[in-house]
Design a protein that fits this description.
The complex is a heterodimer.
Chain A: H1 5-14, E1 22-25, H2 28-38, E2 42-46, H3 53-56, E3 59-62, H4 65-75, E4 88-92, E5 96-107, E6 112-118, H5 125-131, E7 136-140, H6 149-157, H7 163-182, E8 185-196, E9 201-203, E10 206-210, H8 219-225, H9 240-250, E11 256-262, E12 267-272, H10 276-286, E13 293-298, H11 303-314, E14 321-326, H12 334-347, H13 352-355, E15 356-360, H14 366-375, H15 387-401
Helix pairs in contact in A: 2-4, 6-7, 9-11, 10-15, 11-12, 12-14
Chain B: E1 6-10, H1 12-15, H2 18-27, E2 33-35, E3 41-43, H3 56-60, E4 65-69
Antiparallel strand pairs in B: 1-4, 2-3
The chains are: A alpha+beta, B alpha+beta.
Chain lengths: ~400, ~70
């Protein structure tokens, strides 16, 4: 769940990170008033949940309050990567002498947060990593042991920063790591973090992504920031397909059959169980398949819910086959899922035998489920076939049809 | 619409017994049984395929209720 820049900065400010004077404007009059309060010159920044604002012309500079009002009108209609502005952040313009980059995110391979620091801020960190590796450090952070300023100092020092700058940057970087850990974030980024010409340090731009599953742990913060419970805050607006998926899940309290994300492939997925969705999605990719969607089923969804999800997936243009795969299930029943997907095929006017590329759900009530699948001539397998292998079989069948 | 996987047969004597009807409505976890406006038994066809094969209905009326797995029929 992504925060707007002004929300990220509000959180940073609560933790004492250095920020310039700023205010939000939702009208040209407010933009003029904010510029007057702050003292021109100011920078006006479109508040969208996307990067690329500068390129799109959605960041502008004003020397007077009246100019700020006029620029507000120019910025608001600009669409940045498909997103229109919620408001405009008016902030004091700061003369800069040095830019830095600092971020904390997750390293999926190491299964640990990683602190990334560079003394070359303001540009893509990927470019720095490629062209100037000596100017970037990566430091893995324990989620068990406390993070100490010494670790921050080492991370900064590894890029060649020393002296007063090192001392001034250390508490900023330490605090960013603490924020990342305290609020279950998946990204806490400051780019650029700057040293101003007057020697002060300041956060010029910042981004925060919170793990969506952690929202309930942080309701007080989200309420304070004005983030409504129904705001999904994804990087892009949900598609019609995804909205329909959410409706399927919400319409029936029994189990889970939703969290649908749309992709442009041709193999429909009905997948889940104890992290199985991610594993199976990756398995399909590794086997060379092109998933049409991601989804999660579990918690013993009803026949109706599974049926509706199946119909939704099969209703996506280009999807001729689905793979029904889960990890070994305990509380979810194999026979109930089998009924649901077969019914979904039939109600979509499809033959389950040729539509279900593979049914790989071992576990609770599997004997009963296998009877149903045999009756409908659906290819199935038990736990002796790995998830990876099952994904391979589904991909092979999808390829054979094209 | 009848069930695709499950059917339930109830003897007329059970369907006419208000007490047994009440028990069937109460025990079924997926609401396959309902009381009709006239007080008799109504089978909710759209819920038939949700049957969890828990047998609680059979325990409630052992002589008069049969749960049929259509996928086992010849």
């Amino acid at each position: 769940m992504r925060f707007y820049e002004y929300e990220s900065k509000e959180l940073f400010a609560r933790h004492g990170l250095p920020l310039g004077k700023r205010g939000i404007a939702t009208s040209r009059d407010e933009a003029r008033a904010r510029a007057r309060e702050i003292g021109a010159p100011v920078v006006l920044k479109s508040q969208v949940l996307s990067g690329g604002r500068m390129k799109a012309g959605a960041v502008k500079f004003a020397d007077t309050p009246d100019e700020a009002a006029a620029l507000f009108d120019e910025i608001m209609p600009i669409v940045v990567n498909g997103q229109t502005a919620r408001s405009v952040l008016v902030e004091e313009k700061s003369p800069i002498s040095q830019e830095y980059y600092v971020a904390v995110t997750w390293d999926g391979r190491r299964k640990l947060p990683v602190l990334v620091f560079s003394d070359m801020g303001g540009i893509d960190i990927e470019q720095v990593a490629e062209k100037y590796p000596d100017h970037m450090s990566q430091t893995h952070v324990s989620t068990i042991l406390p993070f100490t300023p010494r670790l921050a100092k080492e991370a900064i020092g590894a890029t060649g920063v020393s002296g007063s700058a090192l001392n001034r940057l250390t508490p900023i970087v330490s605090t960013l790591v603490e924020i990342f850990l305290a609020y279950d974030l998946t990204l806490a980024e400051i780019n650029p973090l700057v040293r101003l010409e007057n020697g002060r340090f300041a956060v010029l731009d910042g981004h925060i992504d919170m793990e969506a599953e952690a929202r309930e742990k942080h309701t007080a913060l989200l309420e304070d920031l004005g983030i409504e419970p129904e705001e999904t805050r994804q990087a892009r607006p949900p598609s019609e397909f995804e909205i329909a998926g959410a409706r399927v899940d919400a319409a029936d309290h029994r189990g889970v059959a939703g969290n649908v994300v749309e992709f442009d492939g041709d193999l429909g997925l009905v997948i889940g169980a104890g992290g199985g969705s991610l594993t199976l999605f990756d398995a399909v990719l590794k086997q060379g398949g092109r998933p049409a969607n991601y989804c999660e089923i579990g918690g013993n969804p009803s026949v109706k819910k599974t049926c509706e999800l199946t119909k939704l997936v099969l209703g996506k243009p280009g999807v001729e086959k689905i793979a029904v795969m889960m990890n070994v299930v305990s509380n979810t029943r194999v026979d109930i899922v089998a009924r649901g997907v077969i019914k979904g095929c039939v109600e979509s006017g499809r033959d389950p035998a040729s539509t279900i590329a593979i049914f790989r759900i071992p576990g609770s009530w599997e004997e009963e489920g296998f009877k149903i699948l045999e009756r409908h001539r659906v290819e199935y397998c038990d736990r002796s076939v790995s998830m990876y292998e099952a994904a391979g079989r589904a991909v092979a069948k999808t390829r054979a049809q094209t | 619409m009848p069930g695709m996987f499950i059917d339930v047969e109830v003897d007329a004597s059970v369907a006419a017994d208000a007490e047994l009807v009440g028990k069937l409505v109460e025990v079924c976890p997926v609401s396959i049984f309902a009381r009709s406006e006239g007080g008799g038994l109504e089978i909710v066809e759209e819920n038939l395929d949700e049957c969890t094969l828990c047998d609680l209905c059979i325990q409630a009326a052992p002589e008069g209720v049969r749960v049929i797995k259509l996928y086992e029929q010849g």
